[in-house]
Structure to design on (902 residues):
């Protein structure tokens, strides 16, 4: 499929370059808006404007919402006031807000100046909600109904008002103060006679979010209840907007990307990798690299305490990378499972004892195997040196045990202290485990090898 | 919200223990099926059966679909044939298939024996599709329409048939051979007069999957096109089922968990952490630990080549943890960004040169800062030892450069060779970078310090 599309797009480019614009327009409008946007995103600034202007007005808005932020910026810059005015009125308010949050302030003013007072008011209200709160994610276009309506009246209302609503399949029933009283789906409307009252068929057990809820909460609600849309109410339980499932999916993806970045010791970036400036990338990475570098200097300090032992038996040094690496890997295995388990709600703080017990048993199995393999390997390399084999094997066993338990518990400790558990991912765990595994190794070496 | 619910559930448990079952039933049926299932999942086997049997038949099926696999198994074991027969007919076929895939084979036979021939046939067909293919994920219950129908007729059909369809908001228009010809949403039906022909209003630019497509493809299509449901066709373009957005969201979450596990050098597990047996956990972890342990023995081998230098200047050893750790961290920072970028389709193989150029520049910024910090730190610790400072600083710079470029390129190389790029995550990158950073460090030490 990928390939098929690439061929299509190269054909489009040819039409554009040959100025065969009528043909290009015919071909473009057959496509889905996401595909058209993908095509325009690949064009240079001049060509992208030509292609964008080919689109019929309504479709142009849908395509505009799918474009990259920098293409949107470029197009807004080049548009006349009347073109801009059409687009801004035609966009769903949440998409308009998303765009405005990325635009430089002079362009924000240009856009707002071309919006009707009503749209401007809606946009301004949404811009006030804190970043990543339900209020900032929601759209304000939804189907609002009254419980005194019949099914037939509700259908008439949906029919008349649905052309500019993002989700038309769930109606929200409110009283005259906009207090949310019930929810009725189009499926339920279809299953009931036209003269049934909404009051009798609506569901009053409403899954909802408050404007101040964070996006993690929203993602959890969508995951748990398989929703198509989620109503958002203010602190007085008045309906102010809805979050649609497609926005919830995008948020889910952003959340996961952030978790991956944090778990690799980076400050999460706002833009995709290829669009992020070199200095921003460097800034996102350097803090943690410095913190971890200073931590691993402590490990170096531990090594310097054993310089005498190393001088006596330099071959000890050759086991260090294997011990510290394996400890780091074991620790990141257990910490990753716990961090992810907590992120998707499978593990909570009450499970700490279960986790220690589980990691303890896993460590016995895994640690024993690794210890035996090491013992054999040492004896093959240095025949007769049983004590060295025992030292290395035993260090391995203790390191794995310590790493698994530290890796399992630290993310929970972080959560308990209200610190983001992703901070306890591989890089930090590895650094901590490094120091401890060296102490185990040299401690045992001093005891067993009498050096 | 969490707390509120916990309180509720503890109240439920009290009602159950006091055998106040009528009251419990009243309270339970007010809840969402996902919440009821969550409550039953916390109960022991006897209590969970009592609670489950309290539920009205239709609700019981919905709750059953949300239960943990082991609770489902327990309930299936204890059900009479007629109870089982009701549940299996009432379940959406894809949910029934999900359950069957986890049940031991004697219970699978018990379930299939209680299904009607038609349901049994549907289930058996779906069980034949390979794991994680579109065919195995789809549901076979969808709204099938004909293009000769009018909007009014389509509504009548939806009204009559929607009670047992998972997604009733998209109708699929097929010819008499079930070839998929078009798609029409309930929104479009609502926006058109009742005598309009589907042929005239349906959209023929259909986003669809083939039964053999893998689940990554499905997730990509949902992400890109903001779908509520995705039609699945066979190789002859005949419609065989649909994937609904809630299933797509679950798949997305499973995919991400798998990626996290693979990136922490584990074989992905089938069940949640707390439900996975100790030996399965150990088995999932040991393979990669062994592979990486043997790789880091190579690093140890490199160290043993420099035993002479270490004997002359033992303090060199104390810089090793810091250099290898920082190299590993830098490498996992860049590899994580590239792996994630490829997973969500932001980066593809054609971007390799851009990535090298970007990582090269990021390395200059980050590497310089770390090098200078190290130079100063060495001079503070060992005043006058400029050459050692230069050796450590320069090694740090070269290590960061090498680590970022290796971390950026290896995931792309893996993809090019059709290997899963997640394999190139922190653990393997760290091990590779370890060996290279030691060669850089001792190579530079020999040159600069003349040892």
């Amino acid at each position: 499929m990928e390939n098929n599309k690439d061929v299509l797009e190269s054909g489009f480019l040819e039409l554009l370059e040959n100025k065969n614009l009528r043909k290009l327009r015919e071909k473009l409008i057959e496509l889905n808006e996401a595909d058209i946007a993908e095509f325009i995103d690949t064009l240079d600034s001049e060509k992208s404007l030509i292609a964008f202007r080919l689109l019929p007005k309504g479709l142009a808005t849908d395509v505009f919402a799918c474009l990259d932020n920098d293409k949107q910026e470029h197009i807004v810059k080049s548009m006349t006031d009347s073109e801009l005015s059409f687009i801004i009125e035609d966009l769903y308010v949440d998409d308009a807000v998303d765009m405005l949050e990325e635009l430089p302030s002079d362009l924000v003013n240009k856009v707002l100046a071309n919006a009707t007072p009503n749209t401007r008011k809606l946009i301004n209200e949404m811009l006030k909600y804190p970043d990543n709160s339900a209020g900032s994610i929601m759209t304000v276009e939804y189907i609002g109904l009254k419980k005194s309506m019949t099914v037939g009246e509700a259908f008439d209302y949906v029919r008349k008002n649905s052309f500019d609503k993002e989700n038309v399949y769930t109606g929200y029933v409110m009283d005259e103060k906009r207090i949310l009283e019930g929810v009725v789906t189009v499926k339920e409307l279809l299953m009931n006679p036209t003269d049934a009252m909404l009051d009798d068929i609506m569901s009053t057990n409403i899954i909802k979010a408050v404007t101040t809820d964070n996006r993690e909460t929203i993602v959890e609600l969508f995951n748990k209840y398989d929703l198509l849309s989620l109503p958002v109410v203010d602190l007085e339980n008045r309906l102010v907007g809805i979050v649609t499932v497609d926005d919830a999916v995008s948020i889910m993806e952003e959340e996961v990307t952030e978790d991956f970045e944090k778990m690799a010791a980076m400050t999460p970036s706002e833009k995709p990798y290829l669009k992020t400036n070199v200095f921003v990338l460097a800034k996102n990475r350097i803090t943690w690299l410095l913190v971890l570098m200073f931590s691993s200097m402590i490990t170096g300090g531990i090594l310097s305490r054993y310089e005498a032992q190393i001088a006596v038996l330099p071959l000890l040094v050759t086991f260090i990378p294997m011990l510290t690496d394996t400890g780091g890997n074991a620790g990141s295995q257990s910490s990753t499972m716990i961090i992810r388990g907590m992120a998707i709600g499978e593990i909570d703080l009450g499970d700490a004892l279960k986790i220690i017990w589980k990691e303890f048993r896993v460590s016995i199995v895994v640690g024993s195997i690794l210890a035996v393999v090491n013992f054999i390997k040492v004896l093959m390399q240095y025949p007769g040196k049983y004590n060295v084999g025992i030292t290395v094997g035993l260090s391995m066993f203790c390191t794995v045990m310590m790493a698994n338990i530290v890796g399992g518990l630290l993310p929970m400790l972080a959560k308990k202290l209200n610190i983001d558990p992703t901070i306890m991912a591989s890089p930090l765990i590895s650094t901590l485990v490094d120091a401890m595994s060296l102490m185990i190794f040299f401690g045992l070496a001093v005891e067993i090898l009498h050096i």
